[in-house]
Amino acid sequence: MIKLFAKALGMRYWIVEISVLAVLITVSAILISSGGVAFEVPMRIPQVDSTTYVIYNPSSSLVFTGVIPSELLVYLENSSSTLVMSPEVASLAIFYGKTIMVRGVEAESFLKITKPKMIVGVFEVGESKAVVGEDLARSFHIRLGETIVLYSFFTNRSLALYVTGIVENDVISSEVIVGLDDARYLRGLNEDQFSYIRVLPHGENDLKLLSSLSSTVEASSGKVNIPAWLLSLIKNSQISSSISGYSTRLSKNMESVERASIISALLTALILSIVAAYALSSAIVKSQATGLRLLWRLGMSKSEVIKRFILIKSISSFISSIVGFGFFLFLYFSGKLTFSFLYHSLRPSFDALYLFSYIALLASGYIVSAWKNAKVLLYEES
Questions:
Q1: Partner of 212 at 20 to 30 A CA spacing, among 76, 90, 305, 378?
Q2: Which of 133, 168, 161 is nearest to 146 (CA)?
Q3: Between the CA of residue 33 and those of 12, 37, 44, 45, 342, what are the distances in Å?
Q4: What is the domain partition of the chain in residue ranges?
């Protein structure tokens, strides 16, 4: 009976309906998943891996564009003998017309926290020597022993670097690793300035120390946010061993902001999709108006026509959800769905709860819209 009912309404409209809904679901799923990665990018790049924390200046637009004083590093070194730290300077550079990230490090400190895989050569940086990430080396055909020239994005300076090694790591494979002084030269910073400090705590005492630096310490996501007033106090040498007793300016909870980012993307996708779904249901009902009227005039009650019509729409929504979500999963797990930022290829986040909630709301909205349009059509006819 359902098949005959669908034929009476026109099978071609049913196929068009399923196809358009599936495309809406796929596109919106991509938008929702990109909402998380768009927020994570500024932190994921300097953080390198999830086991480290990043101490940075919250007043900067991006984590790696900020500046913090070297006194902060001295304070942490004097406060803990177990805290492992890697002070770093990030700079943007132009290489063959492309903008890439340059990471300035102290090799010994950096390698205590990060364990990259050496493809060829040695990890030797400083004094115009550099290590190049594997992805970057492959894209620009960089080989061991070559000399590359980087042009600073921030200043008019350029720097020739001798490539001592090719390294592999999820994040730094897309970067050029240099010494701190070389990165400062490109960035235009003084010798007592860093972009941020990556830290690896060991034990509760280190976590308490990090907690004392900020009102927000998040062990799950590895972020320590230093209030601007604290940086000012340390810079002026007004703090020697303790920062207790000072009023703390609350900093944003990074996980909450990330969650808000995803929810905003979800709401945006849902609103746009429901508007599109409403327009689609109106167009489909108008196209199937002749079939609906014919079924009613042949003796089927209006309530029965609407009931079977909504059943057809429910089946359409279900099939569309499977096709649309299935295609999104194919793009996600095949690695075709990636976002590029400063030559860093990042995969979007995948949160099944948000996606399933979106699909349920969209399907419900489409069915309700189709029911209202069909009801108006049949009762206006009478």
A1: 90
A2: 161
A3: 32, 7, 16, 18, 20
A4: 2-42+256-381, 46-252
Question: DSSP per residue over 37-102, as a string?
Answer: HHHHHHHHHHH-STT-EEEE-TTSSSGGG--EEHHHHHHHHHH-SS-EEEEEEEEEEEETTEEEEE
**248 CB-near residues (< 8 Å, 6+ apart):** 214, 215, 227
Residues 6+ apart with CB under 8 A from 163: 121, 130, 131, 132, 142, 143, 144, 145, 146, 147, 148
> pLDDT for 257-294, tens place per residue?
445 555 566 567 667 777 877 787 777 777 776 666 66
Q: Tell me which residue of 104, 131, 254 sits closest to 193, measured CA to CA.
A: 104
Tokens of 50: 């999830």
Tell me, yes or no, if the pTM score tops 0.85.
Answer: no
Cα–Cα distance, 25 to 138 (Å, whole number): 36
Q: What is the pLDDT of residue 194?
A: 92
pLDDT higher than threshold 90 for residue 34: no
User: Residue 221 pLDDT more than 80?
Assistant: no
